[in-house]
Amino acid sequence: MQVEVYRNLHTGSWSIRSTKSGRVVAHADTVYITGAKLVVRPAGRAKVLQEQRKNVHAFIRGTWEAGPMAAGPHHPDQQVSYNPYKAGNFVMRSTGEPVTEADSVTLTHTGQAYTG
User: Fold this and answer.
1) What's the pLDDT at 116?
2) How far apart are CA 90 and CA 66, in angstroms?
3) What is residue 25's three-state secondary structure?
4) For the chain, how many structural domains are there in total?
5) Can you name the residues that pair with 101 across neighbouring β-strands?
6) The dihedral of CA 89, 91, 95, 97: what is its sign?
7) Which of 63, 57, 25 is nearest to 41 (CA)?
8) Which residue, 56, 68, 70, 61, is CA-closest to 2?
9) How far apart are CA 26 and CA 97, in angstroms?
10) Nearest to 84 by CA among 107, 113, 60, 52
11) What are the pLDDT digits (tens) for 55-82?
12) By C-alpha distance, which of 98, 94, 83 is closest to 38?
């Protein structure tokens, strides 16, 4: 299933939104996505910077794999993060290099994201 996944700041879990319907179809503590595109909507980020209040404007789009998750633990060099106040895109946490796509992304129960 093609989805967009983002961190739900109210519950701490991941919200999984169908790209077909635009509706949230599930919440999960861990999610495994293949064929991942890491998306930041510039207008949403601009609104965050202007209002100093977060909104859903960044997510990971791809195929939600309901089967076994990628094995952990994950290497810190694979960690991806996004902070709208620091950059306009997802970055590799260890190097600061922009990341726009990955073969796979594992989203963990601790709120971390790792490329595969």
Assistant:
1) 83
2) 24
3) strand
4) 1
5) 37
6) negative
7) 57
8) 61
9) 31
10) 52
11) 999 999 999 997 656 555 678 889 999 9
12) 98
Tell me the three state secondary structure of residue 115. Answer: strand
Residue 57 belongs to what domain range? 2-115
Four-residue CA torsion sign, 31, 37, 38, 44: negative
pTM: 0.90
Q: Residue holding tokens 């991806």?
A: 80
What are φ and ψ of residue 113, in 5° steps? -125, 135
pLDDT digits (tens, 9 = 90+) for 18-44: 999 999 999 999 999 999 999 999 999
Which residues does 71 contact at the CB level (< 8 Å), separation at least 6? none
78-100 pLDDT, tens digit each: 999 999 999 999 999 999 999 99
Which of 62, 4, 83 shows the shortest CA–CA distance to 91?
83
* Amino acid letter, residue 98: P
